[in-house]
Input
Amino acid sequence: MESPELRGHRWAGILLSASLLTVWSLAAAAQISRDAVIQSEEDIVPSTFGAPWLPQTHESLAKPTISVSQGTVIEHRENVTFYCDTPDVNITIHWVFNHQPLPSHERVQLSTDGKTLTILSVQRKDAGTYQCEAWGDLQMKSSDPTYLIVYYGPDSVTIKVEPGVPNGDTVEVMEGSSVTFSAETESYPQASYSWFFSNDSKPITWSLFFNMSNVTIPAVSKEHEGTYACLVSNAAAQKSLRDAVKVRVLERVTKPYVMAPNRTLVEDTSSVVLTCQTTHEGVGVRWFLGDQLLQSSEHLAPNNRDLIIHGLRRNDTGPYACEVWNWGSQARSEPLKLNISYGPDRMYFTSGSETLADTTVSAELNSRLTLRCWAESQPDAEFNWTHDNTSVYKGEQLVIEALTWKHQGNYSCTASNSVTLLTCSASVMVSVIGHRSSLSVGAIVGITVGILAIVALAIGLGCFIHTGNAEGLSRRTTEDTAYENMTPTSEEGHPEE
Output
């Protein structure tokens, strides 16, 4: 059985050990530094009294350093090697790129000990900061960052023209507009730019409008039409590229006009070609019938300059207009109407203001009858009237002031067109309404002949009496000389008694 004194010493040792462990644990927990870290439980050495001493610590890891084969490389042409130097042993080397673990890929090679990093065929994405970390069991040291510079470019060069509209291998710009040429590429360090115009071997010297990758022409004119080239050079990357663009300056279009053939156009027998005349080249052409745009069809030539109408109809007169345009301006011609000859056809009759619905018209005896003949014709038709095949009038309107029985019968109207050389006829039957005499035609003729005979006889008798009176007067004169004292008889003075 232990003595009370010995038991007191044992409890004191246990309490001391627990106190030291608590103090050490708090200090260790509060210490964030990677320079000293407990390696294992064996580092805690018990005292002769059974209580642990303070933990033993290892020496801090040395800060590694990086050496690099070359800090500046040209893309795709060179390799680069980094070496992590550290005096420590039994450590593991980790590599960090731009503060992130270095990703592994086919162009990254590591030595067995991890200290040597080689990047094959360096690319622009490999540029950045590199660090190596030395890891012990419970501590780590990191090197200072080393920066890798990668020269690249210029990549493929593209010239853009603003404002401009591509048209095949040409860019079209509007006359009078401000145009900027921009050469776009990727390059590090920044490339230099030299601009050339057409076949001139000298750089463009528009210094007021020259700004590295851009060239601006404030007011484009025809003299600026040509080929623009830009030479982009990167001296550090030992590389140059060139691009060119052909520029065409579009004029502001002026009003065109429609040219038609100078000949007579006849319906159904003629075709016509209308041509849009303009002084501008390379412009678009479109046609309008009235205000309606004519879509591309067999009536339009491939270049749209010609509008072809086959088998003209009377309603093809138009008006027609053509419009020339480019993407910056447009202008339309004056409308043109075609003069198309046709007819005569579609004939009909009117009597007064009434259109005759059939081919017969009835009118009262002694009334006034007006017949008018109509026909569709261009130019206006000429009209000829016949009555029972006898020509009675030339003109579109036939007027009979007082209808008689002899006006009855068939009336035919013939319309003719002196240009188309076509004729057209239509007929109407006229019927006279009224009281007809009971005498026959023969009686009427006999009476008429008798009257004429009586008139002739009266005229002849009058002539005979006049001659007889003249001879009697001559005899009386002689007799009066002989018988001047004779009184005339009463019978001679009043022959009527």
